[in-house]
């Protein structure tokens, strides 16, 4: 009886470890580090997110319902919103996205260094942080 139980426990352990490893392998991870109601605007909330972009990874084109101010804490970020030129941001740089802007490029071009971004967002209450943009197969680079 011990052998089947040990085998089942071993398989469950590998399954949980595999799921944890898969989560660690996500190309872009977003962690909420702060959230509260806006102190002056009842229909808004203030959110701070930590975004980790693995080497060579990129986020698909998207739109933010709220305004975003981002700080590149580490690494390099290729960044472009619709109507603006492609920018290459380095650690210490700041970017701004007006509400509703189309974020076309968010890529870590480095092959060995992880990019870390801290995003300060004033978002409509209950709205998602971002919404995928339809019809964007490739990132434009002007």
From TrEMBL:
Ranges of residues in domain Cupin type-2: 52-112
InterPro entries (alphabetical): Cupin_2 (IPR013096), RmlC-like_jellyroll (IPR014710), RmlC_Cupin_sf (IPR011051)
Signal peptide: 1-22
One Pfam family this sequence matches: Cupin_2
Record keywords: Signal
Protein name as catalogued: Cupin type-2 domain-containing protein
Source species of the chain: Brevifollis gellanilyticus
Lineage: Bacteria, Pseudomonadati, Verrucomicrobiota, Verrucomicrobiia, Verrucomicrobiales
């Amino acid at each position: 009886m011990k052998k089947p139980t040990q085998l089942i426990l071993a398989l469950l352990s590998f399954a949980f470890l595999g799921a944890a490893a898969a989560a660690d392998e996500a190309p872009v991870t977003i962690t909420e580090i702060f959230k509260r109601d806006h102190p002056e605007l009842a229909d808004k909330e203030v959110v701070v997110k930590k975004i980790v972009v693995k080497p060579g990874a990129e986020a698909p084109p998207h739109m933010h319902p709220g305004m975003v101010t981002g700080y590149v804490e580490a690494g390099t970020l290729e960044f472009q919103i619709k109507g603006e030129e492609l920018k290459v941001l380095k650690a210490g740089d700041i970017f701004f996205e007006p509400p509703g802007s189309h974020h076309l490029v968010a890529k870590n071009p480095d092959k060995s260094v992880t990019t870390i971004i801290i995003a300060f967002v004033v978002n409509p209450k209950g709205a998602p942080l971002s919404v995928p943009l339809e019809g964007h197969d490739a990132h434009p680079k002007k």
